[in-house]
């Protein structure tokens, strides 16, 4: 197979455009002898004559024109590659994998993807739904590039886990879900402390369990966990059946005829939706664009931006 040298092919193309070795040398800021030497070497590499004498000048052979026809396709492909690489470097292209808990997918990730399709169509976002507690495991394993999880409080500047850079995207207010007809369903100025004696429904472990317990303890009591469930459909169905009460993030609230959603007057507990990336990766162009799009998706359904 012949050896194709891009730099030498560019010299040949310039000679075809300019017509003389001297003009080619001027355009390329080379000496005429260097131009001639490069083209002589290219002819040896390709195994065909590229120039022939024409009076006091040289002209391209038929073989040279054939070479240039194919070289033009190569140059076009390289131009496209340069453009795509430039776009990639500027965050306009590439794939970013996002792991997110269930309610964050429709509320934050989908709007972010829509924004990126319009603003940076070269960026492909691959979404993986994962429990909030699993998000950091996927991030540490390199299976996702951005992880959305939950926290009781906003991440501190001096994060204990040095593997990740974390930021709170929003503080999502927690409302209380009560069965229809509950004695407290219509009470003015309802406080979380008013529900201290109620049976509670929340997850058995992970961030959501910590968030519920921390909110109740902040109001002065430890919640009695009557039932454990991870999905909001199951939790609200149990509330509707009168099996207990639950804190429900505003971002995840679903309308159910037999459930009364009440905003709490004074306690105003919140959960923090946190975006995390591997430390040092936040400056990556694609990841940076995705984080920016996620920030733009806030506020959502009454959630409070950080």
Automatic annotation (TrEMBL):
Organism of provenance: Streptomyces longisporoflavus
InterPro entries: LysR_HTH_N, LysR_subst-bd, WH-like_DNA-bd_sf, WH_DNA-bd_sf
Keyword Transcription: yes
Species lineage: Bacteria, Bacillati, Actinomycetota, Actinomycetes, Kitasatosporales
Keyword Repressor: no
Keywords: DNA-binding, Transcription, Transcription regulation
Domain HTH lysR-type: 4-61
Family of the protein in this entry: Belongs to the LysR transcriptional regulatory family.
PANTHER family associated with the record: LYSR SUBSTRATE-BINDING, TRANSCRIPTIONAL DUAL REGULATOR HCAR-RELATED
Name the record gives this protein: LysR family transcriptional regulator
């Amino acid at each position: 197979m012949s050896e194709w040298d891009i730099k030498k092919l560019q010299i040949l193309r310039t000679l075809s455009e300019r017509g003389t070795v001297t003009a080619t040398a001027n355009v390329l800021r080379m000496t005429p002898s260097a131009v001639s030497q490069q083209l002589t070497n290219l002819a040896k590499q390709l195994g065909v004559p590229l120039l022939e004498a024409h009076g006091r000048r040289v002209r391209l052979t038929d073989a040279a024109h054939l070479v240039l026809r194919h070289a033009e396709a190569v140059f076009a492909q390289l131009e496209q590659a340069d453009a795509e690489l430039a776009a990639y470097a500027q965050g306009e292209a590439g794939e970013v994998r996002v792991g997110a808990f269930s309610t964050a997918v429709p509320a934050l990730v989908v709007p972010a993807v829509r924004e990126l399709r319009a603003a940076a169509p070269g960026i492909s976002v691959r979404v993986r739904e994962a429990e909030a507690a699993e998000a950091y495991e996927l991030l540490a394993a390199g299976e996702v590039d951005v992880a959305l999880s939950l926290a009781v409080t906003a991440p501190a500047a001096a994060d204990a886990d040095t593997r990740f850079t974390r930021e709170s995207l929003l503080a999502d207010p927690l409302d209380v879900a009560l069965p229809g007809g509950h004695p407290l369903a219509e009470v003015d100025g309802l406080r979380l402390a008013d529900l201290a004696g109620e049976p509670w429904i929340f997850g058995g472990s992970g961030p959501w369990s910590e968030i519920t317990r921390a909110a109740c303890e902040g109001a002065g009591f430890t919640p009695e966990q009557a039932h454990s469930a991870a999905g909001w459909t199951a939790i609200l169905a149990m509330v509707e059946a009168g099996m207990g009460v639950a804190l429900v993030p505003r971002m995840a609230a679903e309308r159910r005829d037999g459930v009364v959603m009440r905003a709490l007057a004074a306690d105003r507990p919140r959960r923090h939706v946190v975006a995390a990336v591997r430390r040092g990766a936040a400056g990556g162009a694609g990841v940076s664009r995705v984080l920016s799009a996620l920030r733009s998706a806030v506020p959502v359904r009454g959630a409070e931006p950080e």
